[in-house]
Design goal:
Layout (H helix, E strand, L loop, with lengths): L2 H4 L12 H7 L4 H14 L9 H15 L10 E5 L6 H5 L6 E5 L3 H11 L9 H10 L6 H14 E5 L17 E7 L9 H12 L2 E12 L4 E4 L2 E4 L5 H10 L3 E9 L10 E8 L22
Parallel strand pairs: 1-2, 1-4, 2-3, 4-5
Antiparallel strand pairs: 5-9, 6-7, 8-9
Length: about 300
């Protein structure tokens, strides 16, 4: 932790926001600050390679859901990760199933971090401990060669890293509504607003990108009004399992599952519970076979 960060008082949800913290929530520099600290405070493994316990909980459920989803193998599957932040763990879960993987991220700073790893920049964050854990969840041997292969295949399958704003009715343009066979939204919608109504709209906009019959995986901080990154507060929608179950129900999703994990050691970061959910979109008649390339997307490697 830098000296600057160490001098910033940490916000706790039961406290009132100070004028400085209110200012920070409207500060345009939050993108840079967030991407600078997010990996170190939320994702950096222990010295022995152990990944954070809430990530173990999330990834184990996602891996099990994907393994038992009976996804079709007779055609290409196109997957989307909404709001990956600076992370590749959720995308790595998709490698055995998806032909293409699109990462849709709102923050320009986070997209820069994603591109660093994609282009094998030596200063990029290390995701090998996550690949190792994912392979083990899949029942595979996590040898150094298998870990390296997972990273290589992930880079090959990433089709685009694109801007995505879930507050928009068509986050990737109208032409990409109902375009993806698998959609993952990991700690995204509830971590981008402090208003439940806005969260609901983002949730519905995100689901609009899922193809009829698509598998949807979602994770969220539960009952979290603010979470802390680099000593600064970021807004949370304070939703919980009931909210997600309700939205899945309104979308007429089937095979739904909503689970809660409890992590008291994370209270200094602003939360102690997470929700992990999954379900299938209802079957309808019209299906877009292949997502269109996005005219506004920054090409990978550009």
């Amino acid at each position: 932790m830098s000296k600057e960060t160490a001098t910033i008082p940490r916000y706790r949800p039961e406290e009132s926001l100070t004028a400085d913290q209110i200012y920070w929530l409207n500060n345009p520099d939050w993108h840079k600050h967030f991407s600078e600290f997010y990996y170190n405070e939320y994702y950096r493994p222990e010295a022995d390679g152990t990944i954070p316990e809430d990530e173990q909980f999330t990834l184990s459920i996602f891996a099990n859901t994907l393994r038992n989803a009976n996804l079709p193998t007779d055609r290409e599957l196109h997957a989307l990760v909404i709001g990956p932040g600076v992370t590749f763990d959720d995308a790595a879960l998709l490698v055995p199933y998806a032909s293409t993987i699109t990462l849709g991220e709102y923050s320009s700073g986070n997209r820069d971090e994603l591109l660093k790893w994609q282009k094998e920049d030596p200063t990029a964050n290390d995701w090998d401990p996550y690949f190792k854990q994912i392979l083990e969840y899949e029942g595979k041997k996590a040898t150094p060669a298998a870990i390296a292969e997972r990273g290589s295949l992930l880079r090959q399958k990433i089709r685009a890293i694109v801007p995505l704003d879930a507050t928009q009715t068509n986050p990737l343009g109208e032409e990409n509504r109902g375009a993806f066979d698998i959609v993952i939204a990991p700690y995204c919608f509830e971590s981008a607003t402090d208003k439940v109504d806005t969260w609901r709209q983002m949730q519905r906009n995100g689901l609009s990108l899922a193809k009829p019959g698509a598998l949807v995986l979602e994770a969220a901080l539960s009952d979290c009004p603010y979470y802390i990154v680099g000593g600064r507060p970021y807004p949370g929608a304070s939703i919980n399992r009931t909210h997600i179950a309700s939205e899945f129900g309104k979308a007429n999703m089937t095979d739904t599952s909503v689970q809660v994990g409890y992590f008291p050691t994370h209270r200094d970061l602003g939360y102690d519970k997470v929700v992990v959910a999954s379900g299938r979109m209802p079957i309808q008649s019209q299906v877009r076979q292949v997502p269109l390339l996005y005219p506004y997307a920054r090409p990978i490697g550009a």
